[in-house]
Amino acid sequence: MHKLDQRLIGFITLFENLTRAKVKDAFIDKKERVVFIVNEGDAGKAIGKNGSNIKRISKMIIKTIKIIEYSSDVVEFIKSIIDPIKADSYDMNNNIITINSKDLHIKAMLIGRDRRNLIELNELVKKYFNNIEIKIG
After folding, report:
1. CA dihedral 53, 122, 70, 50 (to 10 degrees)
2. Yes or no: is domain 6-69 CATH 3.80.10.10?
3. pLDDT at 136 over 90
4. What is the rounded CA–CA span in Å between residue 82 and residue 100?
5. What is the pTM assigned to this prediction?
6. Is the pLDDT of residue 2 over 80?
7. Distance between CA atoms of 65 and 56, rounded to whole angstroms?
8. Most buried in the list 28, 46, 66, 92, measured by CB within 10 Å?
9. Among the listed residues 86, 88, 85, 81, the one whose alpha carbon sits nearest the alpha carbon of residue 129
């Protein structure tokens, strides 16, 4: 669990004022990117035409930005988190979501070194959806 510090609150305020997109949550990930989780339907506003909003805010705060669109559908939320990676299919069985891909390179990116990416993905999904576990198939 993370806390919003003064700097992060400033980033959220700047982001909302410039994009008119509502931020549901924000944090700085292990790659030192500022990650904004925006409300459903706000991703387009947040990104801007040809990514103009992201580029402008990124230059202002001197950090790389990632936008994740929240969705009440857990599979759509996962797709938004792992974007631009595209998996072949998503299977849900007893609160376990299996992300399937025939491409080993995609599996490797989803899992990450020492399973770090998969652990981060699970942590982020569990924050909004209780009792959901993600596996790579």
Report:
1. 30
2. no
3. yes
4. 13
5. 0.88
6. no
7. 10
8. 46
9. 81
